[in-house]
Design a protein that fits this description.
Layout (H helix, E strand, L loop, with lengths): L1 E7 L5 E9 L2 E8 L2 H16 L14 H11 L6 H18 L9 H13 L1 E2 L13 E2 L2 H22 L25 H12 L6 H11 L3 H5 L6 E2 L4 E4 L8 E4 L2 H12 L21 H11 L8 H12 L4 H8 L15 H15 L4 H22 L1
Antiparallel strand pairs: 1-2, 2-3, 4-5, 6-7, 7-8
Length: 388
């Protein structure tokens, strides 16, 4: 016998939950947006049972989206890094609020697409509670929406491969909004000199060595500030990072001035200091935000964040002939996608590589190359005379 319940969500959306119970068979449940669809489904299930055409339902017809979220948070999130745990928890809380009442079988690509559009169009909480300072309504950026979809996709992949709750990942058929090109803000030679001068005269003596290491290695702020002396090898000139953003072990190469700066820190190290840059609180790194903002102000540098030091290091590598693969390895990227933003900075190096290849395959000697240059110059002069 089938029973249909009308349900109203917090946003006023009405759905119909239908359940078919028959002795000797597990209860069958589904949710629909239209009552006629719910009745039709109940009739089809009852007919299949009566005519012997019904087969045991799969997990996606018994499990709700909310159950999947609960299981994933309990069993899978604890294995992730604390910051990633918090981010994914926030993402899943939103998805659960909007899709939690659905059975997994009913969470189709179309349903997720509608939720994605809602995610993009709903305003988010203002940064301040003061209504006079709220300004325009704020919405989630495309990059943020991609992160929400990414968390959902990871959960579905887990439910598909490990739990057998679903047969496929519906996110494969949901389009991701385009993300903006990666930011490439790097210091010019003059800006770099001004910034380093300002850091050297900062009220915080830690700021200068931190900025030097960031520019020399391209390391992230968290990677530098959490460096410990047991991971520093002054003889080989390197620092070992065990806990990186992508989860892989990486070495920072300390050379020239950066190595001398670290050696200076080592000479001034106090007994019992574990961190390279200890703060006022035991076991916590130094706080640099105020000193950093003050240095930028005194150096008269605008539109620049600490993370842009990482971009600056990558840009300098590109302009000095490093390949994209080399830059990716130094910065700790698993793929080349993140470093393609620096392609235009390495064009001169690429041109030199192509020029050498062309000269070799066509056996162009220095003498022939000189003659070719003379011909090109003559042609250019002739064309200029004709034009004038």
């Amino acid at each position: 016998m089938a029973s249909i319940q009308e349900r109203k969500s917090e946003d006023g959306t009405i759905t119909y939950r239908v359940q078919v119970r028959k002795r000797g068979f597990p209860p069958q449940t589904a949710t629909f947006e239209r009552k006629t669809d719910a009745k039709r489904w109940a009739h089809d299930i009852e007919s299949a049972i009566n005519e012997g055409r019904f087969f045991r339902t799969t997990e996606d017809r018994r499990r709700t989206f909310s159950e999947m979220v609960e299981k994933y948070i309990k069993e899978n999130l604890p294995d992730k890094k604390p910051q990633l745990q918090q981010d994914q928890k926030n993402h899943l809380a939103w998805w659960n609020l909007n899709l939690g009442r659905y059975l997994l079988v009913d969470v189709t690509p179309a349903v997720i697409t509608d939720a994605r559009n809602k995610l993009a169009s709903e305003p988010i909480a203002p940064r301040t509670a003061n209504p006079k300072k709220r300004g325009k309504a704020r919405f989630r950026a495309n990059a943020t929406i991609v992160r929400y979809l990414g968390t959902l996709s990871v959960m579905y992949s887990t439910a598909c491969r490990e739990w057998a709750w679903v047969n496929d990942n519906p996110l494969r058929k949901v389009r991701k909004p385009p993300e903006p090109r990666g930011r490439v803000r790097f210091l010019s030679d003059d800006e770099r000199r001004r910034l380093l001068d300002a850091c050297q005269t900062s009220f915080n003596p830690v700021l200068y060595p931190v900025v030097v290491i960031a520019l020399a290695t391209g390391a992230r702020s968290s990677e530098i500030m959490n460096l410990t002396w047991d991971r520093i090898d002054l003889e080989r000139g390197r620092a070992i990072l065990d806990d990186t953003k992508n989860g892989e072990r990486r070495a920072l190469h300390l050379t020239a001035h950066a190595l001398n700066v670290v050696k200076g820190l080592s000479a001034r190290r106090k007994d019992g200091e574990y961190l390279l840059f200890p703060g006022n609180k035991p076991g916590r790194p130094a706080e640099l935000r105020k000193a950093w903002l003050d240095a930028l102000k005194r150096a008269k540098i605008g539109n620049f964040r600490f993370h842009d030091l990482r971009h600056s290091a990558a840009s300098y590598l590109a302009m000095n002939g490093a390949t994209l693969a080399e830059i990716a390895e130094i910065l700790g990227h698993k793929t080349l996608a993140m470093v393609k933003r620096y392609t235009h900075l390495s064009e001169s190096h690429t041109r030199q590589v192509v020029t050498r290849m062309t000269e070799n395959i066509f056996n162009i000697s220095p003498k022939t190359k000189g003659a070719a240059n003379d011909i090109n110059a003559t042609n250019a002069l002739a064309e200029r005379d004709v034009t004038s």
